[in-house]
Amino acid sequence: MDTIINEPKRVFRDDHLGGEGVDKSIRKLKDLRGIFKDERAFENMDPETLVYEVISYLPVKEGTQGGVYFGVTSIFPGSVGGEYFMTKGHFHAMIDRTEFYWGIKGEGVLILMDEQRRVWAEKMFPGSFHYIPGRVAHRVANTGKELLSFAASWPSDAGHNYEEIARNGFAKRLIDINGVASLI
Ligand code: S6P
Ligand code: ZN
């Protein structure tokens, strides 16, 4: 007898993952207080402005060893005092855990920082592929005029350490200087 071939429970198309057990979380400007340098420009913007959203499929409980997660982050175009809209950024709580990122749509920059606070960066564009080693904090900025979407996959026991970045930030910022993205 033939075995039935089932429909998938989730479908990933363009920059959208839909289906069973897929979650969406959003970050508005008001959730990102303190990450941009220009506090006055920040205060003059609408706190309800949507900065990014993350669609994720987390098939096992956070902290499970041996599992893997998948997510798509979409960052809207915009800036605060010339500093591009960006993710909060984090080290992993299990600091040696690694991650893949790959560009789907739009233009951006992946900003990386090691524990010695050395910063480097990689361009993101549709098809760009990024291996983020363990012990490296990661943040993405949208440097384009359109939505930037990228996919990510990371171990289910990685966790997130947002505190270190909330306290000390990244050692460099990505600023629009006369239309050129500059890491300063
Ligand atoms: C998780 C992975 C991404 C980010 C997402 C939002 O390890 O790196 O899914 O969570 O891009 O960034 P952040 O810094 O706000 O978590
Ligand atoms: Zn991560």
TrEMBL record:
Reactions accelerated catalytically: alpha-D-glucose 6-phosphate = beta-D-fructose 6-phosphate
EC number(s) given by UniProt: 5.3.1.9
InterPro entries: G6P_isomerase_prok, RmlC-like_jellyroll, RmlC_Cupin_sf
SUPFAM superfamilies (alphabetical): RmlC-like cupins
CDD domains tied to this protein: cupin_PGI
GO molecular function: glucose-6-phosphate isomerase activity
GO CC terms in record: cytoplasm
UniProt keyword terms in alphabetical order: Gluconeogenesis, Glycolysis
Metabolic or biological pathway: Carbohydrate degradation; glycolysis; D-glyceraldehyde 3-phosphate and glycerone phosphate from D-glucose: step 2/4
UniProt name for this protein: glucose-6-phosphate isomerase
Organism this protein belongs to: Arcticibacter tournemirensis
